Prior knowledge:
With about 220 residues, the chain is an alpha/beta fold.
Amino acid sequence: MLLKNQLSIKHIIKKPNNENETALFLMIHGYGSNERDLFSFEKDLPENFFIISIQGIYSIGIDKYSWYDIDFSNEKKFINILQAQKTIEKISFFIDEAIQEYQLKENKVWLCGFSQGAILSYAIALKKPNKIKKVIALSGYLENSLLTEEMNPNIYTHLEFFISHGKYDTVIPLSWTKRGLKFLKKKKILSLHYKEYESGHTLNSLNYKDLINWIKEKHI
C-alpha cells in the first residue's frame, strides 16, 4: 500500500467501489505502531467507506511511530499534554484536508483508534462534533485534560461510541475507561456500546467480531 504525502499527515487509503457521497473512516494507530496496523480491518469493513489510516507524527524506531510521548512510569504524567494537544489540532486539520482532497461527506466522519489513537479519537470527536458521527475507542480512555473547559452537552447527543477494553489490560487500566463512560453519560451521550473482554492490551477475536458487527449495523 502506497504511503501518500500530499496532505499534512502521511497516510494510506482504500477507495470505495462507489465514490458518491462517501463517508471518511479514519484510523489512528497506537503508540509504537504504524499506519498498516488498523488498516488490516479494511477487508471486513463496508465497501462504501473511504478508508484512511494515518501515520504517527513522531518516529520512535524502525517503522514505529507515536502521536505524543508517554511516561509509563508516572500515571499523573502518562500523557505529554502539550504534544497531545498539538496532535489533536493536526489531526483535526487533516480531517478537513482529507474531506476536501477526496471529496468526502462533511459531517459523516468515523474515527477508529487503538490505545493512544483511542485517546485522541475521544478528544477529536468532542472538539469537532459537527463533523464526527461515530467513534470507535479500542483499549483507550477519555483524558479530561485534553478537553475544552466549556462543553455544551446539547451538541454531542448525536455521537455514537463503540468502546471496548481488556479486563487484564496492564497498560491502560480498565478503571480509566469506566471513568470516561461516566463523563460521556453526563454530557448526554447515551449511544454507548461498551463491553469488556477476556484480554490484555489488545483485541481478541470476539472483540473484533463485535466491532465489525457494530460497524455494519451502524454504517447505514
